[in-house]
Structure formats: C-alpha cells, structure tokens
Amino acid sequence: MKEKRISFGQGHGSLTHNNREFVAANVDPLRTPDNITFVCQPIGEAYDQLFAESTERYNARQTRNDRKVHGSYYEHLFGVKPCSTVRTAADKRKSFYEDVVQIGKMEDSGIGTEDFQLVAECLKEYMESWSARNPNFYIFNAVLHLDEQTPHLHIDYIPVGHYKRGQDVQNGIAQALKEMGYGEGKMAIARWRAAEVEVLNAICREHGIEPLPPDKSRGTLEVAEYKEQRHKADELAEQNAQADAELAKKKAAIKAAGKKTAKLTEIDSIETGKTMFGGKVTVSSEDWENVTALAKKEVASQKQTKKLRKERDEAVQERDELKAKLSAVSSELTAYKKAEEEKGLFSREKLKKEAKRISREDELSRELKKAKAFISACGLSSDYQQFRYNSTTRKNVLE
Fold first, then answer.
1. Between 142 and 273, where is the model more confident?
2. pLDDT at 301 over 70
3. What is the number of other CB atoms lying within 10 angstroms of the CB of residue 137?
C-alpha cells in the first residue's frame, strides 16, 4: 500500500476564501471550476433555520422585556450582523467552526502526481457521510478545493445543543459533543477528532492507501514559511535515508569480501609430497594455478576491503552530520513555532481586551440613546438641555 500522511486540523474559517469570492496567490483560477461544493448556505439563513423557532419560544416565556432576545439569535450572541468570518461571543462561543482535511503532501498527492485524483475521491467519499455521523454539527458550507497544490476539504459547521434551561436550542459545542456520545470536558473534541480520523483511515485503506498518523499543526506559521521549513526537513530526512542505504551497501560488500578471503583455506587441502631431491614439495599444474589465482584474489580482496572500510567510515560520518542537521532544523522549527504561538497569544489577548472595550462603549451608547428617547417621550427635552448647560457652566467656573 502507498503510505500517505493524514492532515486533520482546525481552519481559520474564511468563507470568502473557501467560496472563491477572494482568490489567493496559491489558487489556479483555471482549475477553480473543478472545485466541488457540497453545501453553500448563508450563515444568517442557517442561524434562522436552526434557532429562530427556539428564540420565539424563549421570548414567549419571558415576562421581562430585558430578558428577551432582541433581533436575531446571531446578533444577540455576537453583537454584529452575520458575517463570513468566525466571531467569538463574550462566553467564548464561536459563530462557526472549520476543519481542514487533507490526504498526503504536495510531493506525493499534489497536482501532476498520479494520486491527485485518488485522494480527491477519498475526500469526497469521506465528506458525503459526514452529516450522518455528526447530527449535532450542522454544515452550512463545505468545499473540496482542487485548484490549489493538493486536494483538501474545508468543512464549516455550527454546533447545535439542546438545553433544559434558557433557550432550548443553542449554539453549544460542548453540549453537541455530549449528545453525540463523546463525553464531557476538554478531551471530548479530541475523542471526536480521533473518531473522524479513523473513518478517513478506513476509506484510505479501501483505496490502497496506508494512512500515517495525522500531521501536527503548523501553528501560526504562514503557508510559505511552513512549506520552506517542511521542505528543508524532508530534504534532510531523504539524505539521511540515502546515507543509511549507502552504509548498508558498504557493509554488504565488506561481508562479501570476507567470504572470498575464507576461500583461501582451500589451499590447506591441497595434497603435497616429498621428492627424492630433498624437502621440496611438488604440486600438479592445476593445483599451482589454483594457488596462484587465490593469491591474486586475496591481494585484490584486501585492497577492496580497505577501500570499502574507508567508504563505510565516510558514509557513517556523513550520516551522523545529516542527523545533526535534521535535529537542528527540527529544533529551530519547534522554537520558531513556539515563539509565533506566543506572539499570536499576546495579540489575541490584546484583541479580546479591545473587543470588550468596544462592546462596553456600544452598550453605553445604546443606553444613552434609550435615556434620551425616554426624556423626549416625557416632554423633558428642554429641561434636560438646560441641565446640561448649567452643568457645563458650573464646570467652566470651577476650572
């Protein structure tokens, strides 16, 4: 079977990229018509379909207006109109989740390779049974990209959970995983991903592919940076494998030379006899030719063995150097990814604080508008203006 590495990770969640409303540099527009779109539903429409009736039931039970959901459920959670990127609510719920699934790498499954269409068929088969396996994950957008280097899936879904308190149907990934039988806690999502990878592995094996363990995430590395690091690591690994193969060949040659040397023991089996002229030994012409040939072979074998041993030592040294380089590149890549992740975390914290500040300002602005509307409705607008004027005047006097 052909061995290929499985990649199953969380995507950024950009619907404009997935649906080719925005075309990145790594996309071949001539092959874009080859992409397979399984689902393409506006996210606002999907939210109304999933939660509108539940929101109505919830509002009908409320006796206080401030507890009702005003506007759409999406706007209630995320404070904005439905949009094509992932939004995060105050309670950390996300507007949708995305998984990116790929079989193989550009080198063994990319465009122009014999397995390009094979891995595309495997991904298509995997996608077609996805919803049946995951009833609490509602897919509103799913695309198989065939216009980039390697076929891969973008699966965008909304987790749906059912609750006894509050609104009875909500966006909730923990509850959705629990209802699908993956338990509770932080490991629930890991158990679900492992189950999905096993499904993909089974499909691969049916098509003659032996799946390797899923590749680790590239963290916050850009695509070009990640590809360069991967290319370096792959090159060093290949050179290391070649050095090992060369070393094995040299060892085999030395072993063969040793067997040839052992044949010299045949000389001892040649029968000799003394002559009337003293202690000299006579041998037949045939035996003499055998002795001469073996002696010549021994000289050549010793030279060849010496040469092979030297080449073996050089191959061992080269292999060790390549291993050291591979280890250094791997360590550098790990350190780089860690640093990038730390920078990304710092940036996300700042963004969260800024988002909270903006949200607070929006809330205060809405409250001010409500207060002004109430003052106007009560016919107190002129009094309010006079109050503001007096306050400003007193402040100027104090200053």
1. 142
2. yes
3. 22
